[in-house]
Amino acid sequence: MSTLIRGEQPMTTDAPAGESQVDAPVTTAVDDANALPFVAPCRTLGTWEPIGWLGHAWDDFKAAPRQSLTYGAVVVLLSWALAYIAIRFGGYFELLALVSGFILVAPLLAVGTYSISEQIERGLQPSLRRCFVEERRAFGNLMVFALILMIVFLVWWRAASAVHIFFPVDMTTPDWTDYLQFLGIGSAVGSIFAVIVFAAAAFSLPMLVDREADSITAVVTSINAVLRNKRAMAVWAALIVLAVAPGFALLLLGRGNGTGFALVMALLGITLPLIGHATWHAYRATIDASAWPRNEHLDQ
């Protein structure tokens, strides 16, 4: 059997005895030209560009307040349910660890806000139906990412338990200074997991919403972009921390009667959609994913 490649003379190969000769797959120059890159290229960001992303996020929030707050309300209701389980079968420490670990899974919950921002960018009327269609389309890749986050969260939970064992807190004292050592060590340990999740999720989830890409490519693209824009991403991470820090302060102040948790969840119902919208604009300003086919499901 012979095969012609770029006009060269045909070549034949004798098949071993007892075996039939089959056509081997041939890779041509055209196939190489159409092959997708392993990582989407990224742009170089200015140090303070993330502040502009928040401005664009506020514009999206004002353009679609009902849709944004709906996602915020879903987060609040889900958090209340998890808090009830934590308090019912555990205690305040379990609740504090749960809220801390919530940062690790928050990017996945904000997928709907990415879709809202994309619809606004395309000039479409924001629709929750389109958000659900988009989430269903990307369900497989999102579940792969959710599995990664679940593993990280479970490891974080065990690490938080170890911190509680080696640095116990007297839950009967009203002195908040007793929490400083526990929170300091816990924050140092948690920051390791937060950096890993931040690097993997900074641009990957918006890319899955925007393009027909797989989760591995999106995660590698995100990590590459974070490493190449360390200063800008450090500013962006600091802005996210500032957005959720007041909620954690309220959680500590209201630990006696549960009002702190109610306030922190209400605050996240507003800040999470804003961070989600800003994450979409961060992706659009940083990642050049034009080599991948664009998702056209939003036009339905």
Short overview:
By secondary structure, this protein is mainly alpha-helical. It has one domain (49-171, 186-287, 294-299). It has helices spanning 29-34, 49-63, 65-89, 92-109, 111-121, 128-137, 139-166, 179-201, 204-210, 215-228, 230-253, 259-286.
Q: How would you explain this protein's 3D organization?
A:
- This protein is an all-alpha fold.
- The protein has one domain.
- Helices cover 70% and strands 0% of the residues.
- The protein has twelve helices and no strands.
- Helix 3 packs across helix 12.
- The longest helix has 28 residues.
- The protein is globular, with a radius of gyration of 24 Å.
- The chain starts with 28 loop residues before the first helix and ends in a 14-residue tail after the last helix.
- 33% of the residues are buried.
- The N terminus is likely disordered.
* Binned strand content: under 5%
Which outline best applies? globular
Order of helices and strands: HHHHHHHHHHHH
Question: What's the pLDDT, averaged over the residues?
Answer: 75
Head-to-tail CA distance between termini: 48 Å
Number of strands: 0
Please give the share of residues in helix. Answer: 55-70%
Task: Let me know the largest β-sheet.
Answer: none
List segments where confidence is low: pLDDT < 50 over at least 5 consecutive residues.
1-13, 27-33
Radius of gyration: 24 Å
In terms of structural class, how would the helical and strand content be classed?
Answer: mainly alpha
Number of helices: 12
- Count of discrete domains: 1
